[in-house]
Design brief:
CATH architecture of the largest domain: 3-Layer(aba) Sandwich
GO molecular function: ATP binding; ATP hydrolysis activity
Protein name: Metal ABC transporter ATP-binding protein
Number of domains: 2
Bound molecules: adenosine-5'-diphosphate, magnesium ion
Distance between the termini: 40 Å
Largest sheet: 6 strands, mixed
Keywords: ATP-binding, Nucleotide-binding, Transport
Order of helices and strands: EEEHEEEHHHEHEHEEHHH
Organism: Halobacillus salinus
CATH class of the largest domain: Alpha Beta
Radius of gyration: 18 Å
CATH superfamily of the largest domain: P-loop containing nucleotide triphosphate hydrolases
Strand content: 25-35%
Shape: globular
Number of strands: 10
CATH topology of the largest domain: Rossmann fold
Strand order of the largest sheet: 6-7-8-3-9-10
Domain ABC transporter: 6-238
Structural class: alpha/beta
Number of helices: 9
Length: 246
């Protein structure tokens, strides 16, 4: 049966009466790499968290893989914004990735040899296998982000959500992450990435969700990447737009 990877209807979210996301409706087909773009405070993280059911929504329906989110949790991997993660939490790289295997374990089972090997394979894919015994707090920004991507890979999800994965990340980590995200899409997985600026949007994404509280634009990158549409989202940040080559 064909279903959308993500389907959202009339989503509204607010904090203490202040609207952060207003009336967003859209649907994403499987296999797409989608960027959520918009200025700081545009509601990008809020939108992502509301889609995932991590914060309450005022109104609206969200389906992932044709079902309510709570029925497909195992199929959803989420990499939060770096500053939403407690990096002092005493856990090694390997154990952090091993946590990704938990949703697929049978009830009351602990990860065994098979899961440990799989975790190492995921670490290898992001180029972090040598760091498996490090504490996560002892890594650079790019290394931390690669470890969290490895954890998402370990989960074998169908839909991946990443919030600002390139912030505080070195160029080579960024390239590794983008390459893996593209590979996931080739395998038919759906990847949604919050990205606060427009740089590289064209190289990285198939589709863009341009958000500034409301949905300003949605579609193929070439359709959304138009001066008038971008200007509407970035309201007057024209110097910045020039820099981005719009
Ligand atoms: P973005 O990720 O695009 O930078 P956010 O979703 O973090 O934007 O924030 C959208 C708006 O909601 C901002 O005005 C922000 O201050 C507000 N906001 C975000 N999180 C909270 C919260 N936990 N409580 C109250 N207001 C919040
Ligand atoms: Mg954010």
């Amino acid at each position: 049966m064909h279903h959308k990877a993500i389907s959202i209807q009339n989503l509204h979210v607010s904090y203490y009466g202040d609207e952060a996301v207003r009336d967003v409706s859209l649907a994403v087909e499987p296999g797409n790499l989608v960027g959520i773009i918009g200025p700081n405070g545009a509601g990008k993280s809020t939108f992502l968290k509301a889609m995932l059911g991590l914060i309450p929504r005022d109104k609206g329906d969200v389906e992932i893989l044709g079902k309510p989110v709570k029925e497909v949790r195992k199929q959803i991997a989420y990499v939060p914004q770096r500053n939403d993660i407690d990096w002092d939490f005493p856990i090694t790289v390997r154990d952090a990735v091993l946590l990704g295997t938990y949703p697929r374990l049978k009830l009351f089972r602990r990860p065994g040899k098979k899961e440990r090997q799989w975790a190492m394979e995921c670490l290898r894919r992001v180029g972090m296998e040598e760091f498996s015994h490090r504490q996560i707090g002892e890594l650079s920004g790019g290394q931390q982000q690669r470890v969290f991507l490895a954890r998402a890979l370990a989960q074998q999800a169908e839909v991946f959500f990443l919030d600002e994965p390139f912030v505080g990340v070195d160029v080579s980590s960024e390239e590794t992450i983008v390459k893996i995200l593209k590979e996931l899409c080739w395998q038919g997985k759906t990847v949604i990435v919050v990205h606060h600026d427009l740089s590289k949007a064209n190289d990285y994404f198939h589709q863009l969700i341009l958000l500034n509280k409301e949905l300003i634009g949605f579609g193929a990158v070439s359709d959304v990447f138009q001066t008038d549409i971008i200007a509407k989202a970035y309201q007057g940040q024209f110097a910045f737009m020039k820099e981005m080559g719009v």
